[in-house]
Structures are given as C-alpha cells and as structure tokens.
C-alpha cells in the first residue's frame, strides 16, 4: 500500500454570498469566509479540506503548513504534534462567540482538524476507501439533517452589500408566520424532520410563540430552539417551563456551565450546547454541574475526526446525547460532516447544516445528494470525502474574497448598519 507524503499545502480563502440571517450577535454579513485546503503529495493524490476563512485562522493555517512537508498522510499523531508545536504560542481566536470562548486548545484544534480532514481525504484517495470506512465503517448510509430556521431580513442593510451582490428569494421572516413559511419551504425542498429555530434575537416570549406556531403547523416534527446564551438564568427558566413538552432540546439558553446547570435543574427539557462544552477541558465542569444533556460536536474546532470520535466516546460514557453543530460551510465540509456522522453510532440527533442558505460552492455538483423524503444526505460514494474541487469556482470565489473586503466575521457591525445604536449585550433578555 502506498503512503503518500505531503509535498505542498495550499490554503485558498474564498468568500461566498450569505443572506442577512439574524442571531444573538447581530446579523450575517453579505459574505461568509471559508478556506479551502489542498494537501498535495508525492504520489499525485490531493487531500481536500475546508476551514474558517477569517484572518486569524488563515494565519494559523499558513504558519503550521510548512511543518507538514514530508509527513505521511497516515501519520496523524505526527500531524497533531507538529501543528501543536508550531502554534504553541499563538493568540487564541474564535470565529464567533456563538461557538463559545476562544482557547488555545480550540485554536490549535481548528488547525489540526483542518489538516487532518485533508489527510483522511488523501488516505481515502490512496486506498480507494471512503472516509467513513477509514473512521470505523458507516453505521448509516444516509445522515439526517435538521432545518436551520433563522429570523431574517429580505435584504442586507444599505451599505453592507459588496460587488455583484444579489439578494436571495427567501424574503423576510420576522414573526411566527414567517418562520412557519420558511420551515415549510425547507421541509418541502429537503424533507427535514427536525426543525431548529435560531433564537436570541427577539423577545423570548415572541420566540416561544414561534415554537408554538411550528408545533401547530408541524405536529410530528422534533423542534429545537437556540438563543445562543442570550437569556438570563431567570428568563431561561421561565421560557423553558413554557416550552416543556414542545422541544427535543433547548440549546444554550444561557451562558456558562453554572447557569446552564441552574436552568437544567429547573426544567425537564434536555439542554444542549455548542457554547459551554466546546473543548475537552470544559467537560469536567459540565459533568460536575450536570449542565447539559446533549453536546453538538463540530470537527472544525474540536480538533478533527479523531477528536470527534473521542468526544463521542465521552458522551456515551456520561449518557449525553450527541448532535452536530454547523457554521456557514461549503460542500467539502458538508461531505466531511456527513462521513463523520455516518461513522458515529451514538450520533442520535439530526445534524445542523447551513446548506440551504448557501448559494455558491467550490465542489463539482453531483456528489452530494439529498434524500428529500427524509432530509438526509446520502454518504458520498467516491474515495476519500467523495467530492471534487471545481477549480474555476475556487478561482472565482477567491477573487470574490479579494474584492469583498470582509476579513473577519463581524455580525455586530453589520447590525449597526441597520440600527446605529445597537450594542452587543450578553444576555440581552
Ligand atoms: O448553533 C449555533 O450556535 C450556531 O450555529 C452558531 C452560528 O454561528 C449561527 O448562529 C449563525 O450562523 O449565525
Ligand atoms: Mg447553537
């Protein structure tokens, strides 16, 4: 069997159109940034991966990249060690506070994960195996995803849009009727079962009204609400009481394990998180305070596939459910999330994905196929991740990155274009 060695690492930032989705931190800007990683090898095999495209992440990826030259794509312990050594002194950074606090472990984990996924893709291409087979074998050939519902505007605020920006055709969704209509379109298009509403935007009772409207319109669909820690403990307790029996889980109503623990003791609703358990060192406190019942994993910051499998084992140990978190992403990450979810037996909730909001991609069409009866993505069949890079699209979206001027995600400044006095307050309600 061949063991390709890394000869070159190419990191290409891209910007993709993104609609004005509202959240606790403000509103999405017209462009979201991603980085496409190509690991080139001495055997011609190229491993692909996708990471955040903000400047701190790009700097870290580019700083760590030279340390990988000469490494076998199978030497994942070597990869972990080289990246950890190279990035030992970097300033911790995070894409957004909506995925929890920045820490060195997460910052280094982001780079390890980004390169590790590309190594797995290269391993698959070298052996003819799919990534899910390299991760222990697929326990499912279709991965269920949830509809990711957002309050949103029809258009970005004046002053936000960049060159060639064209609004999408979803219109606004600012009340229960708008959210139900958005959910209907997602269910009709993809067949999603679970429906997740991104909250933390409006008065919590108005968001609970939207959940009740979703329950009435979709009696058999599991529902989730995620205020991204924008509620106080008292508000969380009150709204959790109101929503008991209506949600499969309540995600990050309030911030931090102590507050989440207090809310957990006051409600029968399972609490889920991608904010207070986002790295291994946060787990002991969550266990001690019994603050969460479900963890949303994310290979992008937990440190890659192998770290995600380790997290799955820890969730199993403590009887925690496992779900999957998403930030705006493209087809390489969707393939990576799907292979991982296919290989984790206890991933027992439908995964989040921003896919329905993404209108541009760097992968060739065809490899990522939805079962629109069940809202599931078929595990790609080709070797490795099973997706191919469209180099014309990569070049165009890289040019868009160069032209658009966005370099870090800043939902709060985008919000201030519409509401000049708007301040980030956590919690707001
Ligand atoms: O589940 C979550 O907390 C997220 O998906 C965080 C994201 O950043 C989301 O809020 C977004 O895209 O605005
Ligand atoms: Mg969340």
Account of the 3D structure:
This protein is α/β, with parallel strands linked by helices. 37% of the residues lie in helices and 16% in strands. The strands form four sheets. It has a seven-stranded parallel beta sheet with strand order 7-8-9-10-11-12-13, covered by helices on one side. A three-stranded antiparallel beta sheet has the order 1-4-5. The chain has a three-stranded antiparallel beta sheet with strand order 6-15-14, with helices on one face. Strand 11, helix 9 and strand 12 form a beta-alpha-beta unit. Helix 5 crosses helix 6. The longest helix is centred in the N-terminal third of the chain and has 24 residues. The protein is globular and about 60 Å long. The mean pLDDT is 97. It comes from Actinospica acidithermotolerans. InterPro entries: DgoD-like (IPR034593), Enolase-like_C_sf (IPR036849), Enolase-like_N (IPR029017), Enolase_C-like (IPR029065), GlucD-like (IPR034598), Mandelate_racemase_C (IPR013342), Mandelate_racemase_N_dom (IPR013341). It catalyses: D-glucarate = 5-dehydro-4-deoxy-D-glucarate + H2O.
Summarize the structure.
With 429 residues, this protein is an alpha/beta fold.
Structure keywords:
15 strands; three-stranded antiparallel sheet; about 425 residues; TIM Barrel; binds magnesium ion; EC 4.2.1.40; globular; seven-stranded parallel sheet; single chain; binds 2,3-dihydroxy-5-OXO-hexanedioate; alpha/beta; lyase; Enolase-like, domain 1
Unreliable stretches covering 5 or more consecutive residues:
none
Q: Give the strand order, joined by hyphens, for the main sheet.
A: 7-8-9-10-11-12-13
If you average the pLDDT, what whole number results?
Answer: 97
From the spread of the alpha carbons, the general shape counts as: globular
Number of domains: 2
Task: Give the helices and strands as they follow along the chain.
Answer: EEEEEHHHHEEHEHEHEHEHEHHEHEEHH
Supply Rg: 20 Å
Summed up, the helix count is 14
Q: Tell me what the CATH architecture of the largest domain is.
A: Alpha-Beta Barrel
Quote the CATH topology of the largest domain.
Answer: TIM Barrel
Percent helix range:
25-40%
Approximate strand percentage: 15-25%
Return the structural class: alpha/beta
Cα-to-Cα separation, first versus last residue: 58 Å
* Assigned CATH class of the largest domain: Alpha Beta
Ligand catalogue:
2,3-dihydroxy-5-OXO-hexanedioate, magnesium ion
CATH homologous superfamily of the largest domain?
Enolase-like C-terminal domain
Largest sheet: 7 strands, parallel
How many DSSP E strands? 15
């Amino acid at each position: 069997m061949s063991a390709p060695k890394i000869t070159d690492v190419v990191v290409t930032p891209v910007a993709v159109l993104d609609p004005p989705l509202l959240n606790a931190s403000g509103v999405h800007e017209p462009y979201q940034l991603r980085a496409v990683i190509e690991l080139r090898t001495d055997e011609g095999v190229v491993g692909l991966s996708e990471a955040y495209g903000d400047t701190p992440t790009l700097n870290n990826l580019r700083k760590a990249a030279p340390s990988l030259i000469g490494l076998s794509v199978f030497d994942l312990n070597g990869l972990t060690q080289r990246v950890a050594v190279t990035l030992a002194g970097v300033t911790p950074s995070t894409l957004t506070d909506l995925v929890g606090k920045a820490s060195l472990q997460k910052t280094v984990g982001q780079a390890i994960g980004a390169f590790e996924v590309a190594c797995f893709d290269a391993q698959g291409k070298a052996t003819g195996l799919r990534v899910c087979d390299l991760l222990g074998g697929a326990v499912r050939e279709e991965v269920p995803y949830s509809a990711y519902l957002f309050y949103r505007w029809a258009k970005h605020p004046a002053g936000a849009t960049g060159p060639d920006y064209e609004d999408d055709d979803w219109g606004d969704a600012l009340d229960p009727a708008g959210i139900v209509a958005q959910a209907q379109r997602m269910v009709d298009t993809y067949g999603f079962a679970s429906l997740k509403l991104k909250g933390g935007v409006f008065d919590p009772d108005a968001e609970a009204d939207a959940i009740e409207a979703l329950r009435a319109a979709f009696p058999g669909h599991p529902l989730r609400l995620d205020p991204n820690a924008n509620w106080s403990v008292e508000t969380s307790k009150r709204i959790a009481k109101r929503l008991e029996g209506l949600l499969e889980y309540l995600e990050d109503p309030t911030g931090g394990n102590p507050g989440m623990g207090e809310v957990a003791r006051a409600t029968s609703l399972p609490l889920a998180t991608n904010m207070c358990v986002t790295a291994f060192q946060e787990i002991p406190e969550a266990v001690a305070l019994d603050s969460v019942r479900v963890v949303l994993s994310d290979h992008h910051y937990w440190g890659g596939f192998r770290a995600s499998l380790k997290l799955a084992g820890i969730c199993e140990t403590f009887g925690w459910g496992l779900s999957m978190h998403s930030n705006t992403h493209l087809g390489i990450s969707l393939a990576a999330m799907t292979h991982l979810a296919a290989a984790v037996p206890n991933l027992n909730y439908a995964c989040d994905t921003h896919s329905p909001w993404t209108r541009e991609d760097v992968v060739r069409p065809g490899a990522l196929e939805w079962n629109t009866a069940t809202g599931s993505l078929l595990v790609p069949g080709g070797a490795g991740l099973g997706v191919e890079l469209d180099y014309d699209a990569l070049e165009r979206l890289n040019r868009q990155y160069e032209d658009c001027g966005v370099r870090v995600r800043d939902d709060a400044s985008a919000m201030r274009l519409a509401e000049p006095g708007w301040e980030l307050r956590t919690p707001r309600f």
